Amino acid sequence: MSRAQHNLLRCIFCCALLVGWAPFAGAASSESRSPTKPNISPAKPNIIFILADDLGYGDLGCYGQQQIQTPNLDRFADEGLRFTDAYAGATVCAPSRCVLMTGLHIGHARVRGLRPVYQPGANLEASDITIAEVLKDTGYTTGIIGKWGLGEPKKFVDGLPSHQGFDSFYGYLTHGEAHNHYPGFLWRDGKREKLPNVVSKDPKFKNLVSEKKVVYGHDLLTDESLKFVRQHKDEPFFLYLCFTTPHVNNQIEGDGFEVPDHGQYENENWPSPEKGKAAMISRMDASIGKLMALLKELHLDDNTLVIFSSDNGPPQNEGGRQPEFNDSNGPLRGYKGQMYEGGIRVPFIARWPGRIKPSVTNNSIITFADVMPTLAKIAGGRSPADIDGLDFSPTLFGNDQPKLNDRMLYWEFGKYGVYSQAARWHDWKAVRDLATKKTELYDLSSDLGETTNLAADHADLVTKFNDFFVAARGDSPTWPLVSTEKPPAANKNQAE
């Protein structure tokens, strides 16, 4: 379905409701509530998508972490389905979230890299269709709590949550704002809501560093998520809960892992940044435990699909931490901002009691672009016809989907243009450097850590991937293919 067709159907539906066209409204309701699979509930399920910020593949106990405690997410995985081969939309925040919201892989997405929010290409536009719009059209109340990062309150208002299908929003609009875990304000819908934290008066760090820390941003997001569920417990809802933990505050020199206390890690013989990151992760885990407990308290547990993931891999050296400490990327090579597995492969867990079998591990290859068609199918809605993602709901319910592994997946990265690319097909992974024009090739079935480049032994596969790198991406005037990184056009004293 094109954007124009989508908007026409929405207009007809809204007009029908306004004039009380009961037969139309009734028919739509009946169709959307009809199960498409025997094990999908006839009633619209609530949907909660929880997104961590910079959480690594190896940062959770259920993915092999030995030191950082994540009992609630470990139980979450034990009660649901844990994917081993799930991929973020990109290796950094903004484009990854764009892919998640629109179902378009990064070669077709509006936002394809990181750049200041005031520049073109860093925000969604009116013609983009999001998950929230699709679910809203099927009768869902939609809300986002946390970090948005795809719209700017002045020049690029079409990218704001309220213009992209969300009924309510509480949190951070821009990536720069979200670096500060003790912000001076958070956005509630279109207005700033002042907080008692006192931010730095230095223009370079405006809204990014707090001198007086009173309330912790993550805790406010947690409280707001519980409030949202209570408020909408009697209607189908979609909650996009985007925590800012464990992202470091890049504007702080030294230990940038802002957290009220180190909790159970205080007495560990670890560097302070490592204690801070661990405390952030465990605090997020506790918040998720509160949310899951509330679903049970309100008797919503059996009719709520909850998915947890991370927007990209862990950073390498940010915030004063050591890249290998506590093994954040697990057995994978690479970090945030890189095309190797550690930058793009992420935790991905789905839980829905009575619908998704517990204690299941699945190695189907899925990506953020697949989330829109999957949630649309489960909700009885219809996603745009021209997206890149595939519906993986049959996999959630225990059915094999060979097509998930048969396709080629695509990623690219660059700050002001694209200078590296990656693709996966079955167990083969290719990484191409546009500066050297060389393509590396790895067999993930025997070399998960991408240590042995097999390009010289498989010229046919290298050609196949190189052809795909050309075919996979659509032209974008704001994200050209380049061989070197270019500096920003201007400095607006706003961090990305």
Plain-language structure description:
There is one protein chain. By secondary structure, this protein is of the alpha/beta class. The two termini are 33 Å apart. The protein folds into 3 domains: 1-34, no CATH class; 43-408, Alkaline Phosphatase, subunit A (3-Layer(aba) Sandwich); 410-472, Arylsulfatase, C-terminal domain (2-Layer Sandwich), CATH 3.30.1120.10. The longest helix is centred in the middle third of the chain and has 26 residues, at 272-297. A hairpin with a 2-residue loop joins strand 6 and strand 7 (191-194). The protein has helices at 3-18, 22-33, 71-78, 93-102, 131-137, 175-178, 217-231, 272-297, 341-344, 371-379, 393-396, 403-406, 459-472, and strands at 46-52, 81-83, 86-87, 141-147, 168-172, 185-188, 191-194, 198-199, 210-212, 237-242, 304-310, 348-351, 360-362, 366-367, 408-413, 420-425, 428-433, 438-443. Residues 6-41 and 487-496 have low confidence and may be disordered. The chain contains 13 helices and 18 strands. Helix 7 runs parallel beside helix 8. A 10-stranded mixed β-sheet has the order 7-6-5-4-10-1-11-12-2-13, with helices on both faces. Strands 15-16-17-18 form a 4-stranded antiparallel β-sheet, with helices on one face. The protein has a two-stranded parallel sheet with strand order 3-14.
